[in-house]
């Protein structure tokens, strides 16, 4: 953000197939109203930006207008025909309000820009009619729920409060002090599997008709940056201090700990998670010009401190009560125990240099090198070399080669959680994601995670044809050794008995942990074209994009001897998690967007195509259901009218054709309850319509 490294989330992504096992930046914590523009560097950039920049960098530039402001309000909802239940639904009502204003602080360019946002989104539900799984007790109370919507499939309810500021104050002859920050407080809800009235996970004294636990999340995300930049003799400098923090508290309601009996609490806190990152850096740069050549030389040093902490849940959330024939821990996610708590920190020191040169009007080069030393993983030298040659003013060829070093995140090392899944027979089981430092994980073959090392190659061209058309095509290959991913879920009586005998921990029915799963190679291409044209009394812009990426696995991690000794059929990294890295995301995406505007009207539309994707489950016992979801199209459009120079109104919609992904087959749709998979890029909510009012001043 504004060129300064953003902190990651405290949570590991374990519930979504796309990006599973990663600790991403939370883009929703960056207010939309604060964004001036977004820059994307698509080459490997670890030598310039450090660990994580394996495939490039996204730089969000904040609004820096020194005067004026805007107030905006919008409301929208999903309105859709849900074919699995043959009903028309309106849900997911979303309201949004934002306000921002800027003021000049000095006569020579100082400013303060501040903003506030509030977002509220209601839940959506695309679940089907329950057919009652056959392994559930076929009792009158259970069977009475057949044909009802007992499950929830869709987006959970959420509320967001965002605030931000961006400021600069000149000082001295040629320097500026700057500061910016973002704040996000989000409360979310998520649905879980339904527990039937006569199931072992229920006490009818508490829930006579069964229950569906609701997960609650309390998320706090803050970034604050302060620094100074300017000229120091013939050198430019930029010195800054950057602190970011993300903290998350998991809670449950409408749940219980069945082992505690009918007096069990129904609300629980299951754990606290936090990640802090503090970065101090100094950049120096200078430009040298000699005849037709120019050279931009840069140096920098950076110190980064990271800390990751987790806190235990309520004692009742992990307690093993007196009813030993019932599941222990809170349903839909047992709490972290004091033994599961993590407190990890490390220091990262970096020194880097870059040289960008132009030789005449046709040829330019970029060279960069960085040495980065991790307290826990040692040091590594990374580099990048790139070149661009313009054969003619309208056509240029470009390419680059870079390598990168990516240490495991502290979250991947220390994160633990308990969740609920289902087996080959469909029964609900409690499973745990164990940290690689957990003694149970070690006994199951876990080892210390190794850093990922990568090489990124790219080659492409860019062309400007006349004043109307520009286009670019880039080819890339990214090789990553020791790719970090989650293992398969290890299930079965052999696991349960082993953990009970060796560690005195009962009821562990499923376990997995992080591994250096395989070496991967991703090859792909990206194409972008723009056509600009005056049309009528306005301006037309047509943009077409197409991308392709295919990931292949090499040197897949072998199953350790510890697991094979428990059960020779165990596989540590197999078809399900291989699918996560290779075929779960569409290989191709394409989009055609058109926009036209004049002083009064703005019209825009976008047609997107997402290629097919494949879903693979491994339920054990040779039961590996698979489904390929076909390519899908989506149409979005918006019309905006400016009533006055200050007031405007707009109406629009996303997925206007109310398109849905393919329905899941009988192996995956969980007896009618989950007709759509979470995999599809177009989601499973159907059409969304909205209106907006904006006032600018």
Describe the structure using short key phrases.
mainly beta, 22-stranded antiparallel beta barrel, two-stranded antiparallel sheet, 53% strand, 697 residues, 8 helices
Question: Would you give an account of this structure?
Answer:
The chain is mainly beta and 697 residues long. It is built from 8 helices and 29 strands. It has helices spanning 46-49, 140-143, 315-318, 410-414, 439-443, 493-503, 561-566, 575-582; strands at residues 35-41, 57-62, 69-82, 87-104, 111-121, 158-171, 175-191, 214-232, 235-253, 268-290, 293-311, 343-359, 363-374, 378-392, 395-406, 417-422, 428-434, 452-465, 469-486, 490-491, 510-535, 538-554, 588-597, 601-610, 613-616, 626-629, 632-642, 647-654, 688-696. The strands form 3 sheets. The protein has a 22-stranded antiparallel β-barrel. The protein is globular, with a radius of gyration of 27 Å. The chain starts with 34 loop residues before the first strand and ends with a strand. The model has no long low-confidence stretch (mean pLDDT 94).
Topology record:
Elements (H helix, E strand, L loop, with lengths): L34 E7 L4 H4 L7 E6 L6 E14 L4 E18 L6 E11 L18 H4 L14 E14 L3 E17 L22 E19 L2 E19 L14 E23 L2 E19 L3 H4 L24 E17 L3 E12 L3 E15 L2 E12 L3 H5 L2 E6 L5 E7 L4 H5 L8 E14 L3 E18 L3 E2 L1 H11 L6 E26 L2 E17 L6 H6 L8 H8 L5 E10 L3 E10 L2 E4 L9 E4 L2 E11 L4 E8 L33 E9 L1
Parallel strand pairs: 17-21
Antiparallel strand pairs: 1-2, 3-4, 3-29, 4-5, 5-6, 6-7, 7-8, 8-9, 9-10, 10-11, 11-12, 12-13, 13-14, 14-15, 15-18, 16-17, 18-19, 19-21, 20-21, 21-22, 22-23, 23-24, 24-27, 25-26, 27-28, 28-29
């Amino acid at each position: 953000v504004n060129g300064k490294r953003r902190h990651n989330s405290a949570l590991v992504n374990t519930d979504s197939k796309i990006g599973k096992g990663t600790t991403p930046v939370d883009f929703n914590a960056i207010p939309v109203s604060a964004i001036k523009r977004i820059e994307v560097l698509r080459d490997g950039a670890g030598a310039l930006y450090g660990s994580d920049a394996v495939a490039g960098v996204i730089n969000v530039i904040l609004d820096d207008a020194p005067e004026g402001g805007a107030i905006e309000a919008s409301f929208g909802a999903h309105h859709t025909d849900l074919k699995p239940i043959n009903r028309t639904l309106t849900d997911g009502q979303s309201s949004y309000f934002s306000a921002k204003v800027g003021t000049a602080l000095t006569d020579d360019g100082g400013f303060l820009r501040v903003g506030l946002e509030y977002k509220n989104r209601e839940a959506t539900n695309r679940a089907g009619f329950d057919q009652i799984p056959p392994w559930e007790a076929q009792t009158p109370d259970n069977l009475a729920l057949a044909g009802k919507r007992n499950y929830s499939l869709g987006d959970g309810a959420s509320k967001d409060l965002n605030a931000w500021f961006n400021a600069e104050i000149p000082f001295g002859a040629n320097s500026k002090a700057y500061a910016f920050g973002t704040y996000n407080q989000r409360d979310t809800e998520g649905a879980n599997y339904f527990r039937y009235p006569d199931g072992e996970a229920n006490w009818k004294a508490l829930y006579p008709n069964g229950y569906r636990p609701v997960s609650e999340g309390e998320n706090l995300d803050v970034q604050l940056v302060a620094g100074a930049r300017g000229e120091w003799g013939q050198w430019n400098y930029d010195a800054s201090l950057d602190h970011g923090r993300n903290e998350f508290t998991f809670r449950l309601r409408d749940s219980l700990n069945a082992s505690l009996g009918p007096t069990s609490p129904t609300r629980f806190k299951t754990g606290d998670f936090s990640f802090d990152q503090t970065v101090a850096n100094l950049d120096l740069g200078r430009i040298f010009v000699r005849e037709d050549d120019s050279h931009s030389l840069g140096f920098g040093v950076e110190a980064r401190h990271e800390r990751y902490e987790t806190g235990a849940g309520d004692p009742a959330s992990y307690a093993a009560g007196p009813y030993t024939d019932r599941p222990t821990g809170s349903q839909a996610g047992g709490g972290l125990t004091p033994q599961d708590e993590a407190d990890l920190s490390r220091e990262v020191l970096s020194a880097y240099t870059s040289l960008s040169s132009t030789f005449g009007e046709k040829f330019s080069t970029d060279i960069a090198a960085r040495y980065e030393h991790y307290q826990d993983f040692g040091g590594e030298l990374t580099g990048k070399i790139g070149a661009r040659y313009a054969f003619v003013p309208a056509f240029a060829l470009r390419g680059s080669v870079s390598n990168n070093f990516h240490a495991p995140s502290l979250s991947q090392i220390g994160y633990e959680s308990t969740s609920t899944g289902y087996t080959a027979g469909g029964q609900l089981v409690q499973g745990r994601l164990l940290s690689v430092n957990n003694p149970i994980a070690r006994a199951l073959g876990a080892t210390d995670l190794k850093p990922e090392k990568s090489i990124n190659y790219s080659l492409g061209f860019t062309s400007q044809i006349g004043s109307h058309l520009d286009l670019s095509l880039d080819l890339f290959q990214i090789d990553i050794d020791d790719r970090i991913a989650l293992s398969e879920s290890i299930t079965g009586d052999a696991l349960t008995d082993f953990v009970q005998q060796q560690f005195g921990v009962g009821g562990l029915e499923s376990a997995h942990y992080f591994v250096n799963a395989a070496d991967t190679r991703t090859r792909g291409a990206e194409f972008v074209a723009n056509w600009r044209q005056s049309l009528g009394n306005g301006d037309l812009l047509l943009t077409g994009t197409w991308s392709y990426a295919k990931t292949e696995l090499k040197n897949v991690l072998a199953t350790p001897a510890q697991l094979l000794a428990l059960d020779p059929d165990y596989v540590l990294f197999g078809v399900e998690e291989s699918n996560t890295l290779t075929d779960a995301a569409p290989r191709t995406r394409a989009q055609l967007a058109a926009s036209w505007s004049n002083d009064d009207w703005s019209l825009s539309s976008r047609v997107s195509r997402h290629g097919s994707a494949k879903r693979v489950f491994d339920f054990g016992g040779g039961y590996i259901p698979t489904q390929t979801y076909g390519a899908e199209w989506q149409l979005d459009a918006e019309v905006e009218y400016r009533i006055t120079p200050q007031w405007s109104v707009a109406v629009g919609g996303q997925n206007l054709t109310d398109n849905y992904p393919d329905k899941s087959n009988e192996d995956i749709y969980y007896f009618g309850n989950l007709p759509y998979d979470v995999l599809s890029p177009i989601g499973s909510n159907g059409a969304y319509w909205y209106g907006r009012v904006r006032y600018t001043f």
